[in-house]
Amino acid sequence: MHIDSSNRFETEPILQKMLPRIIFCLAVILAILLVILLALLSPVAHKAKNPSGPWLALSLYIQQPHISSSSIQPVAQSDTGAFIFHRALTEGPENTSLVVGKAQGFIIPVEHFANSEFNIIYLTFETPEFSGSLSVQAKHVEHKDKEELTVVGGTGSFAFARGLALFAQTDASQSSVADATYHVKLQLRFPNRSQRIPG
């Protein structure tokens, strides 16, 4: 058997030309594998499972304040249809339920102002467990039995709160909006809080 030495010398220049390309491809493949491994094993990726923070669910009622009938302030409603109110925030629907705060608001349901940023309901809490307020934007009020509104902020215990507020009239037979009792279900989230909020 005869080995042609000229063939051996021809493959060496080809290997010398291909070696840098092979090394480059291997380096790229190793870099990609390293990035994938770092992404999978990174402790930061595991901490971001709940980026929005803890959730808090509250169920409350908005009703007439517990004041004698001679001192009740009527609901102000102008010719343009502005609805200004001051109500009690209670734990239950009964008149004897514990008052946990107050609900105040200013809503203009007139066509030009129905989507106004100024239509806000303020829920103020005055309990040992919660102290602060929530701002509920009544931007898309459609006068239905149930209204889903947006919580746009808060103070105190509710600082930076975001979420949903579901308003539902408890007794549809109420003749006027001023006398109605509303059930409010709040779903709140708090960004950047590491511990569970009581409630």
UniProtKB/TrEMBL annotation:
InterPro entries: Allene_oxi_cyc_Dirigent (IPR044859), Dirigent (IPR004265). One of its GO terms (biological process) is phenylpropanoid biosynthetic process. Keywords: Apoplast, Membrane, Secreted, Transmembrane, Transmembrane helix. The chain crosses the membrane at residues 21-41. It is found in: Secreted, Extracellular space, Apoplast. Its main location: secreted. It comes from the Eukaryota. GO terms for cellular component: apoplast. It holds the Pfam family Dirigent. Dirigent proteins impart stereoselectivity on the phenoxy radical-coupling reaction, yielding optically active lignans from two molecules of coniferyl alcohol in the biosynthesis of lignans, flavonolignans, and alkaloids and thus plays a central role in plant secondary metabolism. Homodimer. Belongs to the plant dirigent protein family. This is Dirigent protein. It comes from Herrania umbratica.
